[in-house]
Design brief:
The protein is mainly alpha-helical. 40% of the residues lie in helices and 5% in strands.
């Protein structure tokens, strides 16, 4: 279960897009951080046969994985 303020991984990635970082690159960064225990998230994974779009590490579903804004901010701060 996720809160009403939680962001999908896709929404969180859009907040990280810059001139040097594409949305997909940001999604991969977030998925990698989730997989390595650096970023808390409510994760949903794709079964291989269900995959949609570009694949993320751990088969993480970018539309149904949720990240709390505070957790995203803490991860960003720790990453800088």
């Amino acid at each position: 279960m996720h809160s009403n303020t939680a962001l999908t991984l896709q929404e969180a990635a859009k907040r990280l897009v810059t001139g040097l970082v594409s949305e997909h690159d940001a999604e991969v960064m977030l998925a990698h951080a989730i997989e390595h225990g650096e970023l808390r998230a409510n994760v949903k994974r794709w079964a291989t046969e269900q995959w949609e779009g570009k694949q993320l590490p751990g088969n993480i579903n970018r539309l149904e994985t949720y990240i709390e804004p505070g957790d995203l901010a803490a991860w960003q701060q720790a990453s800088t």
